[in-house]
Amino acid sequence: LTPDKQISITSDGIKLLKKAKEDNIETVWDRHDAQQPQCGFCEMGLSCRICIMGPCRIDPFGEGPQTGVCGADADIIVARNLCRMIAAGAAAHSDHGRDLVEVLEAISEGKAPGYKIRDEAKLKLLAGEYGVETKDRDALSIAGDLAHSMMEDYGMRRKKVNLVSRAPIQRQKVWEKVGITPRGIDRETSEMMHRTHMGVDNNWQSLLLQGLRNALSDGWGGSMIATEVSDILFGVPSPKPTMVNAGVLKEDQVNIVVHGHNPVVSEMISLACQSPELLEKAKKLGANGINIAGVCCTGNELLMRRGIQMAGNHLMTELILSTGAVDMMIVDYQCIMPSIGKVASSYHTRMISTSDKAKFPGMEHHEFHPDNAQKKAMTIVEMAIENFANRKELFIPVKPQEAVGGFSVETIINALGGTADPLIDAIKQGKIRGAVGIVGCNNPKITHDYGHVTLTRRLIENDILVVDTGCVSVANAKAGFKVPSAIEMAGPGLKEICGALGIPPVLHLGSCVDNVRILVLVSALANALGVDISDLPVAGSAPEWYSEKAVTIGVYCVASGITTHLGPMPPVTGSKNIVELLTSGLDDVVGATFKVEPDPEKAALLIRHHIEKKRAGLGLDA
Ligand code: SF4
Ligand code: WCC
Ligand code: FE2
């Protein structure tokens, strides 16, 4: 690494990276450096290895080959590559949702000891939406029928995914007109993979339309099911105080860090951490308690519902181990770098993988299933306690930062006094200019957290309410945007409104699957104003995204009518046609587009401009 290249804007990140270097730990930044220069063909989306007549690449300068062996040109190759990213992202979120539906079913059959229906009201609400009879029926039989009905959303029994009906009617009509109403969750992903096989769909426009439909099957299907069933099983989030950054690890307690996405595992771990019997054992072995913290989205799930603290986001997942204070890290799936088992081997940390679908080098595998999760959680937390005695030197570099998280749509509406009207009035009066959802990852190509924090600061300064999810939410919490006093950093209008409600100007809406809470919120706003989502003064942004899941989220946001900014450029620049479509042509199709801008200062201007344009369109400042 060149010494002048700034790796992170966070003090725990910078200090822990220094420590990692002293300890001879190789990190994501070292490996990113070692990969330079990265392949220009791949960066532009111009390489194809879909079949074994290839691999092929298109010469972007027009001198070498302009088609692959099969005859596919740049447009087809770029479209197929992008569409396969969408399919992978949709598959990841939706498979996470599937695991929750299976737990719901197992509960109804009495085969999931330790799990229960925590929110019967939400169960009944969903049952109503799925046409499941609730009158005079006990929660368990409703749960069973709801699980089975959700399973049908995954398949091909339905003309459309059930929760699509939550979108404003205008939006549903757009989807019908364009022919992108998602039919089944697995169906759209499967069809996307089929259409991108050699010799199937070779029209870049129709490929991309299927990409939109596939992404919608995630946003209004698999991800929405993941969030809603998590609320049923673990409770609807409500605001709770918490702490964030590497300073949440405790010197005198057993530290367990959960990493991954699915609350099915982390919730059981958090319960086991409260077991009197295990606490007793921890004390006997010299620890003052059992401290659980999260990284990435499974941490966000716990933070939202239990106020459990977050030790860091994606680019902190290796560094956090360099504290030497993590007695155990427990992972499920997604965004878990396969490097971390090796990092942990330099410390005393025990690494545990838990999912039959996700195994990693340097980890012990303890598979969790609905029927054994409660017992397994007790066993591995006990192992963590026993590992406390093996600690060597500790380096906990910072004091934790306070934050408030847990803003579900339900609690936002509650905080507003039962309806969205006060928010709408504030937007109408111009005290709040609009709202932006900032979502997604970190990426070693960008100074860690710089994109998130800079963009957020500029937006709230200009009276734009920010909601965030995923790894952004940790960056913004660390930056101090999530305490009520953070209104001092907001513009006068936003400060007045948030101050009156006692909420921070940046609201934590949850994990990456919880981006669907944003869809539900904008649908409520659109319905209250009698307009489509694409008419609202709102935008999405992923300033530091890296993952295929983020591509899918971006695409379902745009297909839902939310114009979305991306920091890093997706691999599409090899096709002028596709760049054109994504950045302007889609406006005529779905009323929203992508805007790509790596510099968050410039992105803030772009987004503000977009919001003012939408305000004008609604005649708000006339
Ligand atoms: Fe090459 Fe076509 Fe095969 Fe892709 S599908 S690897 S472009 S021959
Ligand atoms: Ni969601 Fe991105 Fe974090 Fe992973 S945890 S790194 S997809 S934002
Ligand atoms: Fe995530």
Give a structural overview.
This protein has 622 residues and is α/β, with parallel strands linked by helices. It has three domains: 74-234, Substrate Binding Domain Of Dnak, Chain:A, Domain 2 (Up-down Bundle), CATH 1.20.1270.30; 246-390, Rossmann fold (3-Layer(aba) Sandwich); 412-617, Rossmann fold. Helix content is 47%, strand content 11%. The chain contains 23 helices and 16 strands. A six-stranded parallel β-sheet has the order 6-5-4-7-8-9. Helix 17 links the parallel strand 11 (434-438) and strand 12 (464-469). It is globular. The structure holds iron/sulfur cluster (SF4), FE(3)-NI(1)-S(4) cluster (WCC) and fe (ii) ion (FE2). Residues 296-297, 313-314, 335, 440-441, 470-471, 512, 547, 549-550 line the site of FE(3)-NI(1)-S(4) cluster (WCC).
Number of strands: 16
End-to-end CA span: 53 Å
How much beta, percentage-wise?
5-15%
Poorly predicted runs: none
Assigned CATH class of the largest domain: Alpha Beta
Tally of helical segments: 23
What value does the average pLDDT take? 97
The total tally of domains equals 3
Largest β sheet strand count, sense and barrel closure: 6 strands, parallel
Helix content: 40-55%
| CATH-level-2 architecture of the largest domain | 3-Layer(aba) Sandwich
Descriptive labels:
single chain; 622 residues; alpha/beta; Substrate Binding Domain Of Dnak, Chain:A, Domain 2; Rossmann fold; 3 domains; 23 helices; globular; binds iron/sulfur cluster; binds FE(3)-NI(1)-S(4) cluster; binds fe (ii) ion
